[in-house]
Design brief:
nucleotide-binding; GTP binding; 3-stranded parallel sheet; GTPase activity; Small_GTP-bd
């Protein structure tokens, strides 16, 4: 139930392996909202999905979701990332990434602790029920000189 409404939610967890690169876009038509999920402790994981989705479904709303929130403050994870000259993605970075791709929302969650998990699905549903207004078109006239 979201905002007092009973909702039926259908989810497709598309495979990330290269073997499925040609099949995955077949699941995109009729999609109401994409949850682009990436690991907060694997910075390269963010770069995987947006180009494909923007190519195949450019007008579909996106909610950007940072996962593994429980590991962002985990010292062992931080040290492993530091050894590879990386660091966990911080909330402000996630907000900036969401803005860059035009996502309707940026959220973080942990499947392990369940923190933020219900919010992810509630906000995805809200993105469908209350879509953002389309960008305003310029009201200025166009002039063609030939």
């Amino acid at each position: 139930m979201v905002d007092g409404k009973t909702i039926s939610l259908g989810l497709w967890d598309t495979a990330g392996q290269e073997d499925y690169d040609r099949l995955r876009p077949l699941s995109y038509p009729q999609t109401d909202v994409f949850l682009i999920c990436f690991s907060l402790v694997s910075p390269p994981s963010y770069e995987n999905w947006y180009p494909e989705i923007s190519h195949h479904a450019p007008s579909t709303s996106i909610v950007l979701v940072g996962t593994k929130l429980d590991l962002r403050e985990d010292q062992n994870t931080i040290e492993k990332l530091r050894d590879r000259r990386m660091a966990p993605i911080q909330y402000s970075q996630g907000v900036a990434m969401a803005k860059d791709i035009g996502a309707v929302k940026y959220l973080e969650c942990s499947a392990l602790t369940q923190k933020g998990l219900k919010t992810v699905f509630d906000e995805a549903i809200r993105a469908v029920l209350n879509p953002p207004p389309p960008p305003k078109k310029s009201s200025r006239g166009k002039c063609i000189i030939a």
